[in-house]
Amino acid sequence: MTVIPSTKAVPESWAASNDTMLVDRHNRTFTYMRVAVTDRCQLRCIYCMPAEGIDFTPNERLLKSDEILRIIGVGAALGVNKIRFTGGEPLLRADILDLIRGSVSTPGITSVNLTSNGLRVKELASDLAQIGLTGINISLDTLDEAKFAKITRRERLQDVLDGVKAALEVGIPSVKLNVVALKGFNDDELGAFAMLTKDDPVTVRIIELMPFDAHQIWKTGRHMHAGEIQATLEKLFPNLEKATGTPTEHYITRIPGHLGKMAIIPAYTRSLCGNCDRIRITADGCIRNCLYSDNEYSLRDLMREGGTDDDLGRVLRGAMWDKEVDGWASQRAKDTGPDVHHRESMTQIGG
Ligand code: SAM
Ligand code: SF4
Q1: CATH code (residue 139)
Q2: What φ, ψ does residue 299 adopt, rounded to 5°?
Q3: How does pLDDT run across 229-268, given as a tens digit for each residue?
Q4: Are strands 278-281 and 286-288 parallel, antiparallel or unpaired?
Q5: Is 144 helix (H, G, I), strand (E, B) or coil?
């Protein structure tokens, strides 16, 4: 991977980018920073991590607390207003509460969120609510214990359910469930997931399986297209009402009378790339301007080589300016250019 030295002139296209906001040449503005804070996890979901033999990033190569908060500060000065901590499992990071507190108090940041497997949520829910966490997305692909053990390779369903309950009880403003659709595995549970929206203000998001695991289980017939997910929901609930949600949620609906909502995330179809407002920072401190891109720029190395905040801002602006029009174009551009860094799991990219 090539590090962009802080002293070198930037390509003209970079200099051309607006200097107060993070924008690209396709007229998108980036205000939402997703920061992976670890690549470690207590679970081993089959579409995400192998059962064993994982080379975790050594601690010294991960971003430190002050480095993460520095990147967030530089992003906020360039218009970022929403942060999401992810991983790996972000609640495994010992300084996660400090990172949330630090983000909440960063000028310009108005929303601080987590994506979590839920296992430590019960224990931390009160603290998370008290320090101002805006939202939590908890991943849960099945409500069946045996299936849970198969998909995560661990027997921890009850801990996740307890986590969801605790997040709702302490009043974290937004609680969402991330359900990866797996054909022949949990497609028969979409109705049961939808019923979780009845009495709680939870959003159930059904996500398309993506090709990011080294073993490519998505090629084994498990992939369920957004259209099939939508057709299944429409068949189960013919009277769904339209609802509103975030720019990358599709087919946002509510069952009449239910407190919560449902949405589909076309993560593989990539039909909502035109709405993309995201910047991704990997746990080892690289910017990825698209989930499907392998071109990365190391902010960690730049910081550790003495780069200034202006240097960091310049690299952030440049990386986002160069973003491809959509995830298909990013995928086609993979493995070209000097900054290619191939990653084999969502835990390394930051899901
Ligand atoms: N450990 C946390 C969790 O599971 O929520 C955060 C990290 S995880 C990588 C973030 C999200 O990515 C989860 O909702 C997970 O289901 C999703 N994910 C991981 N690999 C995926 C894949 N191959 N396709 C679709 N979603 C995936
Ligand atoms: Fe861990 Fe989340 Fe990946 Fe599952 S999806 S293995 S919980 S990081």
Answers
A1: 3.20.20.70
A2: -75, -30
A3: 999 999 999 999 999 998 888 889 999 999 999 999 988 8
A4: antiparallel
A5: coil
Among the listed residues 248, 322, 287, the one whose alpha carbon sits nearest the alpha carbon of residue 75: 287
Query: Residue 93, CB half-sphere, CA atoms under 13 Å: how many?
Result: 27
Band (13; pLDDT cuts 50, 70, 90): low
Could you identify the residue written with the tokens 């084999």? Answer: 344
Taking CA atoms only, the protein residue closest to ligand 1 atom 23 is 210
* DSSP three-state, residue 297: strand
What is the distance between the alpha carbons of residues 239 and 65, in angstroms, rounded to a whole number? 48
Q: What is the DSSP string of 221-286?
A: TT---HHHHHHHHHHH-TTPEE----TT-EEEEE-TT-SSEEEEE-TTT-TTGGG--EEEE-TTSE
> Is 49 touching ligand 2 by the criterion CB < 6 Å?
yes
The ligand with the least distance to the CA atom of 140 is: 1
Using CA positions, which residue lies closest to atom 1 of ligand 1? 89
pLDDT confidence band for 292 (50 / 70 / 90):
confident
| Residue 88 near ligand 2, beta carbon < 6 Å | yes
Distance CA 348, CA 57 (A): 9
Domain count, the chain: 1
Cα 11 to ligand 1 centre (Å):
34
pTM of the shown model? 0.93
- SS3 call for 115: strand
Give the chain's length: 351
How many angstroms separate the alpha carbon of residue 74 from the centre of ligand 2? 29
Three-state secondary structure call for residue 142: coil
Q: Which domain holds residue 81?
A: 2-349
